[in-house]
Amino acid sequence: MSNNKNDQRSDRAEYDLIVIGGTVGGLSVAISTQRAGLSRVRVIEPGNAIAFPELVPEHRLEVGYGEKLLGIDHDGTNVIVTTEQRTYVAKGCLIAELHRDPSYEPPVATALSGRVTIDTLPEDLSNSDILVIGHTNHAVELAGQAAAAGAGVVVAAGGMDPAQLAPVADSMIRKLEHERRATILYRSVPDGIGDKDEFPIAYFNDRRTPDLEFDHIVFASTRVRVPRSELNITSAAIDSNKVWFLGVAEPDIDVPHGHAWEIGRLLSNACFPELELPEAPSVVQRRVRHESAIAELREEHYNATITRFEQRHSDLWVLRVRPDHGDTSHIPGQYASLGLGYWEDRVDNCVDPGIDARWHKLIRRSYSISHAMFEASGYFAPPDTVELEFYIVLVPADDDHVSALTPRLATKKVGDRIYLGPKVAGRYTLSAVTNPEAAVVFFATGTGEAPHNSMVVELLRKGHTGPIVSTVTVRNWKDLGYIDAHRALEKRFPNYHYLPMPTREADVPKRYLQDLIRDGDIEAALGTPLDPGNTHAFLCGNPAMIGLPEETVDDEGTTGVSYPETTGVIELLVDRGFTINKRNQPGNIHFEEYW
Ligand SMILES: Cc1cc2nc3c(=O)[nH]c(=O)nc-3n(C[C@H](O)[C@H](O)[C@H](O)COP(=O)(O)OP(=O)(O)OC[C@H]3O[C@@H](n4cnc5c(N)ncnc54)[C@H](O)[C@@H]3O)c2cc1C
Questions:
Q1: Into which CATH architecture does domain 116-222 fall?
Q2: How far is the CA of 31 from the centre of ligand 1 (A)?
Q3: Going by fewer Cβ within 10 Å, which terminus of the chain is more open, N or C?
Q4: 302-420 belongs to CATH 2.40.30.10
């Protein structure tokens, strides 16, 4: 207990919770605890306005405007909050007041004036256009106040993560947008402020936002907790665990504290254990609710449309993607990159590690370009120049790894937008197959078949007469996304054979691609020996199947190679005289590893 004399005042009012500071964080806790059943909650606001005045009647909030805080103490049972007007006896107290960070500098070099300010809104805002620059709760507070005063509001909120906003700011920003009282530019910040006929003009250096003129521009400063010394708070109050501070974790913080979304629950657990606050939405749910933030991110990053999304089964897809601009010319065997934002929904409930820092970023992955093989007419489909076909399998998250792109791709459908890398790339092509009579063998695991589909068609289309075998291991028959097209090719071209190898079908003996070489199946299908002098082998997919050797150097400086413990296809082919194709050393083993 302390000796604070202020708690000796006679006009003591009893409350459940005293919230100091009408910030969005303070209002969030006042509203949520009142909703959960607290009947005596008072917000003490030292200034003459709270973040969103319209919330006062809506939620029947009790606010003491202009109440200057004198001190906070604990008498062993209750928190004693003393202001210039009164002394309050409460079961709990939240300090939600925040101050401007003294080190705050506007992010844009500019001269402050009556029309360009930090944190200060002009007195008369009716019929004026105002730009608020900032991405924090405080920017939302200023935007809400300006909108309430009748201004047309734009918020340059570049970098705003809606999940980091306090609950009240979260719902306020959605309401402002919904009622068209504010335009939120989630991705834009001006990089210059000029002057046009004495009015400020904001220059945006991004393609999305034109330069805009305003009556006023206000920077929303960053906010920090009020120093303990200024609050005149006693150690008894801090140690009581009944006085909480709004704020994210900081190394030096020595008081009970919590982020806006969790502080209501933390404080209630400590002060009102009987109170049942509803579960807060997850950060993912919080972001998804901000449709316009997501729409802006999609608009910024996506440059292509999914024109076909065919599920061979729930986890195996053939999709086609059409870019907005440019053609899709490529050489069979090459790959392109596809991307979706971390902001997209996942098909599972997994949470990507570090999502908060990267939720607004793009996940990009390489995908071999596949091929439809036939048109509906039965003729070969010509090489794609307008859209690209991909053959993709879902990589499920497991205990060790939360896969990023494919669980998001799983939620997509025809018409949805996606990122397609501007360039196709890759040296995994048929350029080395110059003899039309050569034997060509393709080895694939799963969707590693994708590039082979277009390579096989390319060979046959060009009149290749040598034997061609395409072989693939999958778990089950249903994992063969293109089997009908391959069977149709076999009927038309006697020099082509498709050898699918399911490893988990009861009636098929479990064998791997390596067994097909060892047991002579490949040679039987080719109708000729595996002759390194006249055969090209293409290997794509799982690195374990490929079995790429490592180059080694011993103590004497002699170079050699070391093969992986499990024998891969490369080792078997090298044993038969094949050589790996390298940039400066042509060979007849070509490979593409998927990871
Ligand atoms: C040049 C190139 C072409 C590719 N082409 C295709 C393609 O045509 N079709 C396709 O489905 N994938 C292809 N991939 C793999 C693809 O780039 C992604 O790695 C894969 O889709 C997983 O992405 P993710 O973000 O969901 O998982 P990530 O978070 O990237 O997880 C990657 C991990 O998932 C595992 N993994 C990756 N692919 C598979 C797979 N197919 N089966 C099982 N485990 C896997 C590996 O352990 C890898 O380390 C290709 C990769 C490369 C490098």
A1: 3-Layer(bba) Sandwich (3.50)
A2: 47
A3: C
A4: yes
Cα(451) to ligand 1 centroid in Å equals: 14
Task: Provide the pairing of β-strand 316-323 with 362-368.
Answer: unpaired
Sign of the C-alpha dihedral computed for residues 455, 456, 461 and 464 taken in this order: positive
* Mutation probe of ligand 1 site: the residue of 320, 395, 449 with most atoms within 8 A of C-beta: 395
- Pairing of β 316-323 and β 304-313: antiparallel
C-alpha to C-alpha distance for 280 and 168, rounded to whole angstroms? 13
Fold annotation for 439-593: Rossmann fold (3.40.50)
Q: Is 419 in the pocket of ligand 1 (CB under 6 A)?
A: no
Per-residue b or e along 54-88, where b marks 16 or more CB atoms closer than 10 Å to that residue's CB: ebbeebebebbeebebbbbbbeeebbbbbbeebbb
pLDDT in tens, 388-405: 999 999 999 999 999 999
Residues of the chain with CATH 3.50.50.60: 5-97+226-271, 116-222
Residue 365 CA: nearest ligand 1 atom is 17
pTM over 0.90: no
Separation of 405 CA from ligand 1 center, angstroms? 9
**Tens digit of pLDDT for each residue in 339-363?**
999 999 999 989 999 998 899 999 9
Residues forming CATH 3.40.50.80 domain(s) in the chain = 439-593
Does the C-beta of 591 come closer than 6 Å to ligand 1? no
Blockwise average pLDDT, block size 10, the chain, 595 residues: 46 94 96 96 93 92 96 97 96 95 92 94 92 97 93 95 94 93 93 93 87 96 88 94 83 77 94 93 88 93 97 96 95 97 93 91 97 88 91 96 98 98 95 98 98 97 97 98 96 97 95 97 96 98 98 92 96 98 95 98
CATH 2.40.30.10 positions along the chain are 302-420
DSSP β-ladder status, 216-219 and 129-133 = parallel
Sequence-ordered strand ranges (E) for 475-514: 496-502
